[in-house]
Specification:
alpha+beta, 23% helix, binds flavin mononucleotide, single chain, Pnp Oxidase, Chain A, 8-stranded antiparallel beta sheet
């Protein structure tokens, strides 16, 4: 069954829950043509600069960081219940030393509008084109945040990805329940 177009607002409450619990899968593919999936939890969906936007925070130490820099785009993929293990794997193992797609049996499928692919086995997809990026301002934090989240100075880069396509499996809700 083909994937059907959705509005970026369709899963607002669910997205807040997924991001704050098991996470979702960000895929970026750099110049070497190898897709890589990373679990993300820090992100949000909204309307900025007259565009639907997926905002994500990526630490420079992640392999994904270099891939987004090269590609200028990324996809965000919501995993069904059956892929919960992949979320943990992709959130602890680096694509620098592992082919996470192969090792987790994930299938990359060409996106409709951007270069980074989606994950076929996921059920909701957002194709995002980077329209702005900025590094968090280390000196502007409340000290408690710096102490808790940045003991190694691995300050996040914030990517603003315009959602240029969003679609889902018609039975996504059943696979997520
Ligand atoms: C639930 C969960 C959420 C995560 N959220 C983020 C995030 O928002 N940003 C980030 O830089 N790393 C996050 N991570 C850590 C990365 O997923 C992890 O370091 C991963 O192995 C990086 O993969 P890569 O080196 O292939 O890019 C998260 C991990 C988990 C388990």
């Amino acid at each position: 069954m083909g994937k059907v177009d959705i509005s970026y607002t369709d899963y607002f409450p669910e997205m807040a829950r997924w991001l704050s619990t098991d996470g979702i899968l960000l895929v970026a593919q750099g110049k070497d043509g190898k897709p890589n999936a990373m679990t993300i939890g820090w992100g949000t969906v909204g309307w900025i600069w007259g565009k639907p936007m997926f905002v994500v925070l990526v630490r420079p130490s992640r392999h994904t960081y270099g891939l987004i820099e090269e590609a200028g785009d990324f996809t965000v993929n919501v995993a069904p219940r059956a892929l919960r293990e992949a979320l943990e794997f992709c959130g602890t193992i680096s694509g620098r030393d592992h082919d996470k797609f192969r090792e987790q049996g994930l299938t990359p499928v060409a996106s409709r509008k951007i270069s980074s692919p989606i994950i076929q086995q996921c059920v909701i997809h957002y194709e995002c084109k980077v329209v702005q990026k900025t590094d968090v301002n280390a000196v502007a934090f409340l000290p408690e945040i710096t102490e808790t989240y940045y003991p190694k100075d691995d300050f996040h880069r914030i990517y603003f990805g315009e959602i240029v396509a969003a679609y889902a499996d018609p039975d996504a809700s059943e696979k997520l329940a």
